[in-house]
Description:
This protein has helices at residues 61-69, 131-136, 138-141, 145-167, 208-216, 254-273, 286-293, 319-326, 347-359, 385-395, 410-427, 499-508, 513-527, 541-548, 579-585, 598-604, and strands spanning 18-30, 35-41, 44-50, 76-85, 100-111, 171-172, 190-192, 200-202, 221-229, 241-250, 283-285, 306-308, 330-336, 366-371, 374-376, 402-408, 438-442, 444-445, 447-449, 456-458, 476-477, 479-484, 487-494, 534-540. With 605 residues, it is of the alpha+beta class. Among the domains are: 12-111, CATH 2.40.50.140; 302-431, 2-Layer Sandwich (Gyrase A, domain 2). The strands form six sheets. The chain has an eight-stranded mixed β-sheet with strand order 6-9-10-24-23-22-17-11, with helices on both faces. Strands 1-2-3-5-4 form a five-stranded mixed barrel. Strands 12-13-16-14-15 form a five-stranded antiparallel β-sheet. The structure holds one RNA strand of 76 nucleotides.
Amino acid sequence: MRRTNTCGELRSSDLGKKVCLQGWVRFSRDHGGVAFIDLADRYGITQIVFDPEDLPEGTDVARISEIMKSFTRESVVSVDGIVRKRVEGTEDGRNPTGEVEVLITDAELLNKSVTPPFELGDQKEGVLPDEDIRMRYRYLDLRRSEMVQTMQFRSKLVHLARQYLDENGFLEIETPVLGKSTPEGARDYVVPSRVHPGTFYALPQSPQLFKQMLMVASMDRYYQVARCFRDEDSRKDRQPEFTQLDLEMSFVDMKDLQDMMEGMVSYIWKGLYGQDLVTPFPHIAYRDAMERFGSDKPDMRYGLEFTKLTDVVKDAPYKIFQNILAEGGIVAGMNLKAEIAGNKVGRNDVDRYINYAKKVGLGGLTWMRCVDGKLESNIVKYFTPEILENIKTTMGVEEGDLLFIIAGPWKATYEGGGALRKKIAEDLDLVPNDVFQFFWMDECPMFEIDPVSGKYDSFHHPFVLPQNDLDDDYVGGACFDLCLNGNELGSGSLRIHNADLQKAVFHKLGLDDERIEENFGFFVEALSYGAPPHGGIAIGIDRLCAILLNKDTIREVIAFPKNKRATSLLDGSPSKVADDKLEELQIITLAGDMDFDFEDIEESE
RNA sequence: GCCCUGGUAGUGUAGCGGCCUAUCAUGAAGCCCUGUCGAGGCUUCGACACGGAUUCGAAUUCCGUCCAGGGCGCCA
């Protein structure tokens, strides 16, 4: 008999039906006479009961009994039976199928499982095996209902995005996975060409150039669920390969792009949770984000904002601040209000935060506490009463408040401050984890200037449309990030559609004509054939899923992720390839146990 | 490349110089049990990541290696 129902389907309304269920033996409970099996598949769990005293006439009880002995944990089995009501008082309210059970009339072992390396019942929290064990046996880990739900969630989310974009006239177009390596940006994963020995394709870090060329090609609205590759070190939110919802639109301004994205996120939200998301999303300028929260992707679900104190302390005879201000640095303070933080942070904690501040790149951390209406600390003697009073007013200090004051060069100091702010919020449990706060971070600069080398670097990437003349002191970029709860979900921008302007930006970034031609010649040429004004955005699907599901790492929302060292514990990749394959590709390797010695090669040069 | 944390039966853990012939749970194997649902009861099996050092004595301290995770750099 073929499967008639899944293991999550049967209800009281099915009583009396003859059914065939097929699935995995999750738990079995043999009472000597009557025996139960929790039969599981991705739809749910149905209780199967073997009841030798209550079988239809002519059933070969001994045979079924014998077959059931082979039903070891996680074996796949097929069971024919009759849906019946559970004995009064033994219903399981936690399970949607808990009112019924299937009385076995026939059974078959489809495929035996050896003893699984860990238990798959995941009703109880905190008993998961180490992640490396889960990865080694990911196909078993994925059987767990939590993982099944995650995969379903992700699938639904992507499906909703596709639906929305399709309804809005987007074409889903695949761009190449084998492309051209460029020296800029992240390291490429590289694929050797057999046909052209000595040359290599690169896997895309993003479909950026191709989607822009699709705009040149008049496709007008494009999207792709694009796998992207970067050969850089992993983090909990960074994998060597990851998935972006990548899209591009022609004849749009930034608001059009953001409206479209807000519409899409709302649509996904409605589909996922049945609730309306509040739009439009708030905006925060890059500079404000940095100066208020110490981050370009601030978590604004809690306070602990910074207030600039540069002007307030500029005349204080405190040498450390004087030196910093003389070098163009900033001074800013964070007020840990007495009731939420100040009273919970003692002298020892302050020392701990001072140490932490040093670790995150701050020179140090100045603190003051408001006691009996006066600011007290080891350094108040360096400040005049007027300045102290001014600090109190500026920071809104009240009795018991604790001030942390950071000082130093603008970027490093605010970034360090942002790390400190995050740490304090986590320590004091100030982060609400049931709030989802989307917002746009915009008004970004076009370039960043390396303080050491003085070289220009793109703030986002070199294809962003500059907002003013490239020779101006400050050049803004038409780019923005979509952020959620302190995470960057994606970046978007209007793009340069003029070939000369694109070249000028490359020049500004230090590329000469030869290098531009070699690496981006085809692209600049494309722009010269009537490229329309266009812009686009890419949303990190892995991150979005992880945040919405409250997962600590994107590995939890990727079916087969790589580990920290970019290896797959499941298939053992990356791995060596056979020598004859390398020979065909005309590749020799200097690593591993081939008969080449790096030093020999160096000497021969 | 660097910093930090960790590695004890198949799995999750306790132990943190001698009470260790290493705890508990789960699992596996066997037996018992007719209403359980992570069933229960009894019996059995099974581990200190690897290599050095210190010490009368090391799972425990130290050094190195390997493995896993978090972070810095990196991620235009």
